[in-house]
Records
---
Amino acid sequence: MNLFPNPSQLLPLLERGVQALETIAAEMVTARLDRRIETESQPKVNWRLDL
């Protein structure tokens, strides 16, 4: 088993890695925006009780 890929195979391998990282980053941004929207859409509750 060769640890180093054939140089002609290296570029497609790097391109797939970059695409995977771009996908992960996009999913993280989407999840963060979804969480922010969910938090902001919740009604504000005043828990103070007048006794």
Note: The radius of gyration is 23 Å.
---
Amino acid sequence: MATNASGGLLGTLMQELPLEFLNEITNGFSDDRKISEGAFGTVYKEQTRINTINVVGAKGYMAPEYLYSGEISPQCDIYSLGVLILEITTREKNCINDKDMAARNFIIDIRETWTDGHIASKYSSLDADCLQQVKACIEIAFKCVDVAQRSRPSIVDVVDRLYGRRAG
């Protein structure tokens, strides 16, 4: 599931979508065609980041730089993807509240709790290779949710690591 989500994000972030095509598939960006918020990295052609004063989005999945200063970049999507990978891999739900909209407490709890021993006890039916894959997914997710946006991996790196094409 994490590879499907990151693969879809890779497709979105890596291709240039002509405005005419976006207008066509969204019916002129009509609200009745809207399926979610976020993933705004490719809409702003020739800009790698922008700032907004109207911060909106799914609580618990927003990157700190977007949440606190309104800075939008593809790295915001990487942050959100990291939170999703943590939820999928650990089977724990990010407890969303107005005081932790960047999921920092959730991330800290996972980092403290999900040791090698905890992973082995939670997934006791898995063999050593599968346990290593679970650990790798968690490590990738932690890189994605780094507070320093420049330290986050690119979507290509995330997909390559999830598919085992690149070491973490």
Note: The radius of gyration is 17 Å.
---
Amino acid sequence: MSGNGAKKVVDAAVKAGRTIIDWDGMAKLLVTDEARKEFAALRRAFDDVNHQLQTKFSQIAELKEAEKEHQKESERIEKELAEMEEMRKKISTMTADDYFEKYPELRKKFDDEIRNDNWGY
């Protein structure tokens, strides 16, 4: 379920959650013990199903949010992968200046190490 379908289901669940049933008012209309017994069973069944549906609908909403987060992460990873692929193609002809242009924070680190006479030994 994706897109508008999931949104409609979640919206319907929210709307259903706001629906108020006047159980006490309906119970007053019942005259026989058997009707009251059936009504009580109906109310318990309704409450059980309603609870299950609310749980499912909240899970759908959580999953939709997780789907959005995963989509963003997937896009970030795809972008990073494309950058790495581009660098892999250029690595054999890349100069230090090209590399430092792409990663300026490393230029300062290397300059500091050279200035401090730290040659990596």
Note: The mean pLDDT is 84.
